[in-house]
Amino acid sequence: MVSFTVGDYICANESVIISANDVKKYAETSKDFNAIHLDFQSAVKAGFEREIVHGMLVMGIAESRLSTIFPTSVVVSYETKFIQPVLVGEVLTFSYVVIEEELDTIAIKIEATKENENTAIIGVIQFTEVRG
């Protein structure tokens, strides 16, 4: 496993914009066609400015960046707290910091921050090394 210690930031803060097309593809894959994700009027009626991104799509994007850093590791736990909805087309910036490190495992705190600097999602993902 790549070597990090508690407090290390992993990868530079990375920004992403999740498009309506990304949300549509995720809905098709996950079979989650809730209208607040796909239809402007339904999202507004539910109290949002516009369509919102599936929370697990956001966390999947965050995890995919880590899987390139830990290619021989597997996820053993994943906790997520959804604090604010992410709107389709909004810029998100991800940060990753090591919060626990042992011989074969590492726990990383993931934070997704919106353009207005409000935190949207906080998660902790734990990886373990795959032994051949």
Automatic annotation (TrEMBL):
PANTHER family: HYDROXYACYL-THIOESTER DEHYDRATASE TYPE 2, MITOCHONDRIAL (PTHR43437:SF3), HYDROXYACYL-THIOESTER DEHYDRATASE TYPE 2, MITOCHONDRIAL-RELATED (PTHR43437). It comes from the Bacteria. This is MaoC-like domain-containing protein. Residues 13-115 form the MaoC-like domain. Gene3D superfamilies: Hotdog Thioesterase.
